[in-house]
């Protein structure tokens, strides 16, 4: 569409230019059609169209607008500096030669004006477009390199996070795993001790189950933190083993189904806990199901720590678009204190808020009107679709980046002892360095050619201005011999001066050197002749002397300069 519109505009401009040149109707139509037809061809044959248009411009004025467009297009589309330079040089030479042959400039000043003007029309647009194209190409290359750097930086950061997670997982397994195992072993030994009462055995059993549950949770967290590519046998446990433990009943559930187990464990410890459910149950994504369990677990833990002996209520409300998990407790009963301080890291609620935020939900906590405390979490049903992606066992086995996009996979393999040079010594890829050096070299050539063209243009303008100035000055100080002979002695001064120039020009300075003496009391006007003298240092001069309002003498002589 744009190309058709451009062809139409160039055709109309060609018709107007030919009409201003007083061409015939047939000539106007033919030039307009030719310009419109050559315009789209410049995209396929830039050199040919530029040469043809430059040749036609010498005879047809309508091709002048098309030459500018063809030169711009040729600068963009001609491959290779040598080919482009040859095309533009040939175009300029042909256009200048045909202009001299067909137009036949009347004077050297006219030729001096035509030469830079043709340079502006045929060469300067191509140089500008070529420099602009090279600059745009270099900018695109730099943008691609910047995007690659950002991708590599993200992958390096991901690898650093993965290594840190592996270190944390190892520390957790080595420290907490050992301690939880000791707690479980000692609790198991106490549970079968005959000296304990039945109530004490129940309490010890709760402790043992809690330690076992903590061990399974630790293994689960370690499995998430570890690199999935590593063997699960090194301190962690595979997902298949965890699934077998859950199926066998040896590992507690980590979803909504496990909340009843939390309630039973708290009741066994002597707490008054009530579990309520309301609304029609909806299926939850695995991550949201796990988050619901964590909210109930954190609420119970905080109630046991900060309000021992108070009643606790856990409510699961299935709203139309989300599940609300609420844990509330009453005021702490007025009982004598034990003097023990409660150890709390303050990170549980922060972790819950971050977990639910990633799922598209939210967590709220705060005191109640009766002096208790309330923790509530809202988990959307569509967390797996609309919110952050949920983690599944299959997702845990995937890597952070696809192998096709992994920077490490993009480097070709080399034999031992050999290195694969990817970057230049300045830290840039070799391809980018080559592109920058090539564009810099070609851009420098283009700038040099453009600067030369500008200098030539300025010189041409200066020559033209000088020519106009000299022509104006010569009109004030020079006359032809026939004008000299047409004046007769005795004519009135006003009549003679009306036919002669004023002589007020710097060209008339020094014409009185070696001149014959002027008549006494007369005022003389000395002018140069348009003809040259016989010798190089001689110049013919005409002098007109006036006295009493009349021409009293006219004399022709030679002066030396």
From TrEMBL:
Transmembrane portions of the chain: 50-72, 84-102, 108-128, 442-471
Region (Disordered): 227-253
EC numbers on record: 2.7.13.3
Record CDD domains: HATPase_UhpB-NarQ-NarX-like
Catalytic activity: ATP + protein L-histidine = ADP + protein N-phospho-L-histidine
Keyword terms of this UniProt record: ATP-binding, Kinase, Membrane, Nucleotide-binding, Phosphoprotein, Transferase, Transmembrane, Transmembrane helix, Two-component regulatory system
InterPro entries assigned to the protein according to its UniProt record, in alphabetical order: HATPase_C_sf, Sensor_HK_TwoCompSys, Sig_transdc_His_kin_sub3_dim/P
Domain Signal transduction histidine kinase subgroup 3 dimerisation and phosphoacceptor: 164-229
Molecular function GO terms recorded: kinase activity
Alphabetized PANTHER family for the sequence: NITRATE/NITRITE SENSOR PROTEIN NARX-RELATED (PTHR24421), NITRATE_NITRITE SENSOR PROTEIN NARQ (PTHR24421:SF10)
Protein name: histidine kinase
């Amino acid at each position: 569409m744009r190309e058709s519109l451009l062809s139409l505009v160039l055709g109309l401009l060609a018709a107007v230019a030919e009409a201003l040149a007083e061409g015939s109707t047939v000539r106007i139509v033919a030039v307009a059609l030719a310009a419109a037809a050559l315009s789209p061809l410049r995209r396929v044959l830039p050199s040919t169209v530029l040469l043809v248009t430059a040749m036609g411009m010498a005879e047809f004025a309508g091709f002048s607008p098309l030459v500018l467009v063809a030169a711009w297009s040729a600068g963009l589309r001609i491959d290779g500096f040598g080919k482009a330079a040859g095309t533009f040089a040939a175009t300029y030479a042909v256009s200048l030669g045909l202009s001299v042959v067909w137009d036949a400039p009347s004077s050297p000043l006219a030729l001096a004006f035509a030469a830079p003007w043709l340079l502006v029309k045929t060469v300067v647009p191509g140089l500008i477009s070529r420099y602009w194209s090279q600059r745009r190409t270099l900018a695109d290359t730099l943008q691609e390199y910047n995007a690659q750097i950002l991708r590599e930086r993200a992958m390096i950061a991901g690898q650093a996070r993965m290594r840190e997670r592996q270190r944390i997982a190892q520390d957790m397994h080595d420290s907490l795993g050992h301690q939880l195992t000791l707690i479980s072993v000692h609790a198991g030994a106490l549970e079968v001790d005959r000296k304990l009462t039945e109530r004490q055995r129940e309490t010890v059993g709760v402790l043992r189950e809690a330690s076992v549950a903590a061990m399974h949770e630790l293994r689960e967290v370690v499995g998430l933190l570890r690199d999935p590519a590593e063997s699960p046998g090194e301190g962690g446990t595979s997902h298949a083993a965890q699934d077998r433990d859950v199926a066998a009943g040896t590992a507690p559930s980590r979803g909504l189904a496990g909340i009843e187990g939390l309630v039973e464990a708290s009741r066994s410890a002597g707490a008054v806990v009530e579990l309520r459910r309301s609304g029609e149950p909806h299926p939850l994504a695995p991550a949201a199901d796990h988050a619901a369990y964590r909210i109930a677990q954190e609420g119970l833990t905080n109630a046991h720590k900060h309000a021992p002996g108070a009643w606790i209520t856990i409510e699961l409300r299935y709203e139309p678009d989300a599940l609300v998990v609420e844990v509330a407790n009453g005021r702490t009963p007025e009982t004598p204190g034990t003097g023990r301080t409660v150890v709390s890291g303050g990170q549980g609620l922060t972790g819950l808020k971050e977990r639910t935020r990633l799922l598209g939900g939210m967590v709220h906590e705060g005191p109640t009107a009766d002096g208790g405390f309330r923790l509530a979490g809202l988990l959307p049903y569509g967390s797996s679709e609309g919110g952050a992606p949920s983690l599944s066992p299959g997702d845990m086995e995937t890597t952070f980046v696809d192998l096709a996009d992994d920077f490490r996979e993009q480097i070709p393999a080399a034999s031992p002892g050999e290195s694969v040079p990817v970057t230049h010594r300045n830290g840039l890829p070799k391809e980018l360095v080559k592109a920058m050096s090539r564009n810099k070299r070609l851009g420098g050539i283009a700038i040099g050619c453009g600067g030369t063209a500008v200098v030539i243009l300025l010189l041409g303008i200066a020559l033209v201005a000088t020519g106009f100035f000299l022509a104006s000055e010569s009109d004030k100080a020079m006359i032809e011999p026939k004008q000299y002979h047409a004046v007769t002695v005795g004519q009135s001064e006003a009549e003679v001066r009306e036919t002669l120039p004023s002589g007020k020009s710097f060209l008339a300075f020094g014409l009185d050197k070696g001149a014959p003496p002027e008549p006494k009391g007369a005022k003389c006007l000395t002018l140069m002749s348009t003809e040259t003298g016989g010798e190089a240092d001689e110049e013919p001069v005409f002098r007109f002397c006036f006295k009493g309002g009349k021409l009293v003498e006219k004399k022709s002589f030679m002066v030396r300069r």
